[in-house]
Design goal:
InterPro entries: PKF_sf. Keywords: Cytoplasm, Glycolysis. The chain is an all-alpha fold. It has a domain at 1-47. It is built from six helices and no strands. The longest helix has 19 residues, at 93-111.
């Protein structure tokens, strides 16, 4: 049944590069790609939790670095849904200046060791 393809069926049809990316994805994201379809059989992209994907991949990388002795610290992720922001109009000058200031302030806080940890 192609409405719910088995992972093996999909993996067998991927290019080498696509297979490498697919195997890096957390189980929950792979399941969303394989199973969640609209009535026309398309992947429901809006339901894929890209924010969770980014958080999990960062966590995996930091665990790997910690295991190699290249990272000492805590990692606690707080997810935020970016779906609406991804479909919004371009930022205004106010938006750009505000976010620039937020980033500059965050960088200054991190640089001074004020990370809350």
């Amino acid at each position: 049944d192609r409405s719910q393809p088995a992972e093996q069926w999909v993996v067998g049809r991927l290019s080498t590069a696509s297979h490498a990316v697919f195997t890096l994805l957390p189980d929950a994201i792979r399941s969303q790609l394989l199973l969640d379809r609209d009535p026309h059989g398309n992947v429901q992209v809006a339901k894929i939790e890209s924010e969770r994907l980014l958080g999990e991949l960062v966590g995996q990388e930091l665990r790997a670095r910690a295991a190699g002795g290249n990272y000492v610290g805590k990692f606690s992720v707080q997810y935020h849904y970016f779906g609406y922001e991804g479909r919004c109009p371009p930022p205004t000058n106010f938006d750009s200046n505000y976010c620039y200031s937020l980033g500059l302030t965050a960088g200054a806080l991190i640089g001074s060791g004020a990370t809350g940890g």
